[in-house]
Automatic annotation (TrEMBL):
<dbReference type="InterPro" id="IPR017441">
    <property type="entry name" value="Protein_kinase_ATP_BS"/>
</dbReference>
<dbReference type="InterPro" id="IPR008271">
    <property type="entry name" value="Ser/Thr_kinase_AS"/>
</dbReference>
<feature type="domain" description="Protein kinase">
    <location>
        <begin position="13"/>
        <end position="268"/>
    </location>
</feature>
<dbReference type="GO" id="GO:0004674">
    <property type="term" value="F:protein serine/threonine kinase activity"/>
</dbReference>
<keyword id="KW-1133">Transmembrane helix</keyword>
<keyword id="KW-0067">ATP-binding</keyword>
<keyword id="KW-0723">Serine/threonine-protein kinase</keyword>
<keyword id="KW-0472">Membrane</keyword>
<dbReference type="InterPro" id="IPR000719">
    <property type="entry name" value="Prot_kinase_dom"/>
</dbReference>
<feature type="transmembrane region" description="Helical">
    <location>
        <begin position="339"/>
        <end position="362"/>
    </location>
</feature>
<keyword id="KW-0418">Kinase</keyword>
<feature type="binding site">
    <location>
        <position position="42"/>
    </location>
    <ligand>
        <name>ATP</name>
    </ligand>
</feature>
<keyword id="KW-0812">Transmembrane</keyword>
<feature type="domain" description="PASTA">
    <location>
        <begin position="519"/>
        <end position="586"/>
    </location>
</feature>
<feature type="domain" description="PASTA">
    <location>
        <begin position="383"/>
        <end position="450"/>
    </location>
</feature>
<feature type="compositionally biased region" description="Acidic residues">
    <location>
        <begin position="314"/>
        <end position="326"/>
    </location>
</feature>
<protein>
    <recommendedName>
        <fullName>non-specific serine/threonine protein kinase</fullName>
        <ecNumber>2.7.11.1</ecNumber>
    </recommendedName>
</protein>
Amino acid sequence: MILRLGSYLQDRYEIQAIIGTGGMAEVYRAFCHKLQRTVAIKVLKQEYNGNEDFIRRFTQEALAAAKVNHPNLVNVYEVEHTDGVYYIVMEFVDGITLKEYIRQKGKLEQQEAIGIAIQVANGLGEVHRQGIVHRDVKPQNMIISSDGKVKLADFGIARAASTETLSQESMGSVHYISPEHAQGKPTDARSDLYSLGICLYEMVTGRVPFDGEEAVTVLLAQINQKPVSPRSLNPEISEELNYIILKSLEKRPAARYQSAAELIQDLEAASRNSGDILPRVQETHGTGGDTILFHTADVTERASQADGAREETAEGEEETEDEETSPTDRRLNKLIKGVGFVLLVLLLGGGIAAGLILSGMLRKEPTVAESESAETESSSALSEKQTYVPYLIALSSDEAEEKLRADDLTLVIQLRKNSDQFEKDVVMEQEPKAGTVAQKYSKVYVTLSLGTAETELSELNLVGTEEESAKKTLTEKGFSVEEKSEYSDTIEKGKVVRLSPEKVKKGDTVTLVLSLGKEPEKVKMPDLTYNTEDSAKQALTEVGLTLGTVTKEHSDTVPQGQVIRQSVSNGTEIEKGKSVDLVLSEGPKVTAVESTQASEAASRYVASIDTNFTLSNLIGPDSGATSITVMVRLRQDVNGQTVYRTLMEPRTIRGDAILPLRFRTIEGAYGVDTGYVEIVRTDNGQVLQSFDVQFFKVQ
């Protein structure tokens, strides 16, 4: 799908220019207005949007690639799907591809080529450490920036694309494809190193080792032909670099470099112009399959002989099947001749891939790379009773059975085992391997994945261990850790009390519950209001609490010297031994009228009361068995404010007692002729009885 220049994706990425197009996508330069940076956006072509399996693999691989970060990799920022458009946002590198650089220079000097190869190998090493196989290493995917840094693009994405059949648009890729990839066999890191070897070959010679007008021609050359020695095409390169390139291009993965680090080591040695990279003893195989051991001098001599032989081939002489051609090569040549006409028809009629699949040379690329490449051979054209074993890895048992049935083969589930790499109930191993010639109606044995193994946390014996030790064990096993705390009577503070859930898989989160030590004893907070300071202190002591800070303030409702409020609410659970702060009453503020009254000794307002109050009338039949603390006070309204004066301090009496109220001279507020004498229960402030009194001015 072509995006219009100036349009936006996600209201964030402004499309500025189209900078490239390929078999599966167009690449645009865009500006991210959110992060204020230029990015590259790879947009999947419309014809792939309907292929759900392709979309799934494309997205999974791109997401995996986004997790890899390295200076020699074009970093993937995000993978998105908006309004039917699938796209990947990547780092934008301002530079040219290695392919264009080679076109401009013709060929590169040895030191420059080695420097580029080392940078790419460093990037590949990081990709391989993350469990990703690139599968599309070629100069078109290597970008050289203006500062000379080389970045490898499209890692992880090529894997999804490579599962599709090859087309004419893939001609650029088949020149760099490994023999096992060309045959549809499983690929691994060594396949990428083969492709890098071809890139290195092209850098120092200006040409690829295998070429042809059709993709099938190139593929068959990758599988069957030996490359012309690069030193015969460019004598200026060293014998050491010549050896590195030819070792990288070995047909058998086991004979190549086994890791990017191993390749880098030899490249650095070649850069120092050292001969140390040549093996002291080289193992090879003769035509009869016997092992031949020869020394460094033999290697040099044989390399020279091979150079001469390859020069003749390069000059146009046709290679023939002689005594040095392996039985495998001869059988393969017979197979090619046997199906040549069919291949030609298929190529003309609609595609390289169909012909290759028919000949058993090309199989769909595996979804998950296997550790060792299968090295099956095609012995001859198939008879009517024979068929090729299809690739079943990562298929469900039903899908595998259907695929085998189409080839007249029978599925047998031989084993089930755990795997971190394969989802549950998909094929993780098969025997015979894909591409093997089998008799029709024979059995293919598979191993199904049980998914990631579950771990019983109890088996780790972490309860009672130190926090750091437990966290280290869990993270090393691939779990995320979430911490919580709780009291424990049996586990020391800071150690593990328990873990949850009971069973976990790699990548799951484990809740690690740590001990706070023994939970302190708690008591219920008593109600201290209307208590004096001494009685409040005694009440706190009785329940195991202590008296904290005591402050005072005026109160119109709580008598002087009694508790107005407490720092911990009544009924609250509080840790034993804690302190409680109190606020005591200083009584009401002295009003202006009262101040005037005090100063006017010549006159005052007084009242009196002479009566009795029977408490049993309020408490009831059981009054004799109870006691109550009461006080007597005067209440008056003075200039809109309620003013209290204590007439009798708090006193505890029996519930059946008669309380005498005999106050012959009650001095009230100056100028106020009414008031109320109140009997108040001090534990809750309840007014038990109120009596009206009249005040008279006296001299």
